[in-house]
Write a structure and sequence with these properties.
Immunoglobulin-like
Length: 172
């Protein structure tokens, strides 16, 4: 049998042994990626609540620490004053919201402003022990890659009651 140019008898001989099978390395890599995704390495999954206790207030933040680019997510911030507060204010540093689009915030604050290097949302008087739950909905903008970090603080007017550092990793 005459072979086409460039082919020899070695090209048509049956392959014997392990070399006739695909490498198990590709299967191992695929299983590793699936396992990492199931463990939440690439985002998704349960968001653990992070609590910071101060002398005058307790701050509980529930938001993703790892998320994928372009996703929508919900953040829940619970503020519990441990004493009566005249002007309960939620302050969020701009670096935490860099390249995020906020779609909603419930309940709306009675006053919103940017002051002293933070977005400030005032909720007025608050009674000791009565929690305030603030729900925020966001979307990760395509330009955000790597992550973002900043602080969430609770104030009585200008007096800081409690503050928490937040970090969020953004995966492709």
């Amino acid at each position: 049998m005459k072979m086409p140019d460039g082919l020899h008898d070695d090209h048509v001989r049956p392959v014997r042994g392990l070399s006739k099978h695909a490498s198990p390395l590709s299967f191992i890599i695929l299983c590793g990626l699936i396992g990492a995704a199931l463990l939440g390495v690439f985002g998704g999954g349960h968001n653990a609540a992070r609590t910071t206790n101060g002398d005058a207030a307790r701050l509980v933040v529930n938001m993703p620490t790892v998320i994928r680019n372009g996703e929508f997510f919900e953040a829940r911030i619970t503020i519990t004053p441990l004493r009566d507060v005249q002007d309960l204010t939620l302050a969020i540093s701009p670096s935490l919201w860099r390249d995020l689009t906020m779609n909603s915030m419930v309940p709306q604050a009675t006053d919103e402003k940017f002051e002293d290097g933070a977005f400030r949302f005032s909720y007025g008087k608050a009674e000791a022990g009565k929690p305030l739950l603030v729900k925020l909905d966001f979307q990760i903008n395509p330009s955000l890659f790597g992550g973002t970090a900043g602080t969430i603080g609770v104030y009585d007017g200008k007096q800081k009651l409690v503050e928490q550092l937040m970090k969020m990793k953004v995966r492709p």
